[in-house]
Design goal:
Helix content is about 65%, strand content about 0%. The protein has helices at about 10-20, 25-40, 45-55, 65-85, 100-120, 130-145, 155-175, 185-195.
């Protein structure tokens, strides 16, 4: 049985940490990137993860040990959240009281980060394992990444909630599909055999 992580920092906590590190990355993009790596089955060493993050997150200087350690812990907590049997994983987006444009932009940034992370992990994936469900989810994530904030309406508020839930479940589904064998429980193996 998988256990939920003790604490995942929220959007504002991550925004503050990224600002302190002088990164141009948003919290949504950071979480999307890490989720994409994890969903693609990447289980990286701390130095390798730091190199990927330094390259993608546009830090003005190399990660210091404290920040690298925090990101490593955040990555581990995300992995547990994605694996949790109770589906506790949530997307890191601006709060519901933030302007709709900011939330939609956050959703697009999360999708872009996820696709980059998954693409990075994909180099190590047996592509024959990418079934129709995963292909469709990735196509949907790519489409959502291109979201246009120019003309937003009240209906978009409802659509946004549905998209967030869809992306949450898609991330969990892709993560489960590429779960490394050593992380699978007997229940996971039975579910895979039934497919």
């Amino acid at each position: 049985m998988h256990h939920a992580p003790a604490h995942l920092p929220d959007y504002d906590e991550l925004a503050h940490a990224l600002q302190q590190a002088r990164s141009l990355c948003t919290p949504s993009e950071l979480q999307g990137l890490l989720c994409g790596l994890l969903a693609g089955g990447a289980r990286l060493t701390r130095p390798t993860l730091s190199k990927i993050l330094e390259a993608h997150l546009e830090f003005s200087e190399p990660l210091d040990e404290d920040w690298a350690g925090s990101l490593w812990s955040y990555n581990a907590a995300l992995r547990l959240s994605l694996a949790d049997d109770d589906y506790t994983f949530t997307l890191c987006l601006p709060d519901d009281d933030a302007p709709m444009r900011a939330r939609v932009e956050g959703l697009g940034a999360w999708c872009n980060g996820f696709l980059f992370g998954f693409g990075t992990a994909l180099r190590k994936i047996d592509e024959s394992r990418i079934g129709e469900d995963v292909h469709q989810a990735l196509a949907d994530i790519a489409e959502i990444a291109r979201v246009d904030t120019a003309e937003l309406s009240e209906q978009d508020e409802v659509d946004l909630m549905h998209l967030v839930e869809y992306l949450r479940l898609a991330a969990i589904m892709i993560f489960t599909t590429f779960l490394p064998d050593q992380e699978r429980t007997p229940t996971d193996a039975v579910e895979d055999d039934a497919c």
